[in-house]
Design a protein that fits this description.
With 326 residues, this protein is an all-alpha fold. Helix content is 75%, strand content 2%. The chain has 3 domains: 60 residues, 434 Repressor (Amino-terminal Domain) (Orthogonal Bundle); 181 residues, no CATH class; 63 residues, no CATH class. A two-stranded parallel sheet has the order 1-2. It is elongated and about 85 Å long.
């Protein structure tokens, strides 16, 4: 396979037009067209740039007998799986589908207490002739139903395990050109990721403001319960904003790490996720138990900011202990 054919194949494999390749090479489209039509040959500096852009060796480009798109990294094992561009794209799609299911499940679990607070507020204001006991019963049933539906979404994620296992759990290497494509995608996506992450964090931070304001300047359990609903809905909105982009960002990084070996950053993330999976349900249970026992919702909300600070402290403590063990 001659150089011109290799350039065409590599360019099409990553889905670029001649104009896009020319822009990355800082040459005219006509130059790329001449290379691919064998009317001219790129100089040595252009060959080096082509090798960098397509993540191939100069030896592969220059030697006609090198036709197989083999890995340059001879240190990789024979059992290493090669991931093509199509497989990498499908991995991103499946990770986003998993994220959508998980986000729905989390939002249902988070919002499961909203009906309870709503009916308790109605009972407190003597509307619909609801008593406190009836309102609590309806609310508890609503919690059980919504949590059950949320768990069903979590269970549905199992159908994607086999599709994403290769990149998540196996040693792999990317086919030529795939790394550069996803590096470019990640660079463009980072702006969206940073923007939505900032908005989501802002929603988390200000979610306590309405409840704090009402608790300080207004009385009445009914209005406090309604502000609790606002708090929970704002947290759910933050999760809806942050979770999908975080999943997509992590998926890009999982592909670009180009192996199944965990980096220190990924290990920290997994430890934090395991802690969060135990910590936040426990905190929610404590909050509901304390609130329903005392019915002093104007005070029990304080558990959320305190719990958030404590969670950050626990993550920091885990990092400190890990460094000491190392």
């Amino acid at each position: 396979m001659i150089l011109a054919e290799k350039i065409v194949r590599l360019r099409k494999q990553v889905g670029w037009s001649q104009e896009e390749l020319a822009e990355k090479m800082n040459v005219s489209r006509q130059s790329v067209s001449k290379w691919e039509s064998t009317n001219s040959i790129p100089d040595l500096n252009r060959i080096i740039i082509l090798a960098e852009i397509f993540d191939v060796s100069t030896d592969f480009l220059l030697k006609d007998e090198n036709e197989a798109f083999d890995s340059r990294d001879e240190s990789r094992g024979l059992d290493t799986i090669q991931v093509s561009l199509e497989q990498a794209v499908k991995y991103i799609e499946h990770k986003m589908e998993v994220s959508a299911l998980v986000t729905k499940g989390v939002m249902l679990c988070v919002c499961s207490v909203v009906p309870l607070f709503f009916f308790l507020a109605l009972a407190e204001t003597n509307r619909l002739n609801l008593t406190g006991d009836i309102a609590a019963a309806i609310g508890v049933v609503s919690i059980l139903v919504m949590v059950s539906i949320g768990i069903s979404f979590f269970i549905k994620t199992n159908q994607y395990e086999s599709d994403i296992a290769v990149i998540d759990n196996e040693a792999f290497e990317l086919a030529y050109g795939v790394h550069s494509v996803f590096k470019e995608k990640l660079k463009k996506f980072r702006v969206t990721y940073n923007r939505r992450l900032s908005v989501g964090i802002f929603m988390f931070i200000i979610s306590f403001v309405p409840l704090m304001f009402v608790s300080m300047f207004f009385g009445g359990l009914g209005i406090i319960l309604m502000m609790l609903i606002v708090l929970i809905l704002m947290i759910a909105a933050g999760i809806y904003i942050v979770a999908p982009v975080s999943a997509q960002y992590d998926a890009y990084n999982n592909i670009l790490k180009d192996s199944c070996l965990e980096t220190a950053k990924s290990k920290r993330t997994k430890r934090a996720e395991k802690l969060a999976a135990f910590y936040w349900p426990l905190l929610t249970a404590i909050f509901l138990g304390w609130s329903l026992w005392t019915m002093d919702w104007g005070v029990t909300w304080i558990i959320w900011p305190v719990g958030a600070v404590l969670f950050a402290a626990l993550v920091g403590l885990m990092e400190l202990l890990d460094k000491e063990e190392s």
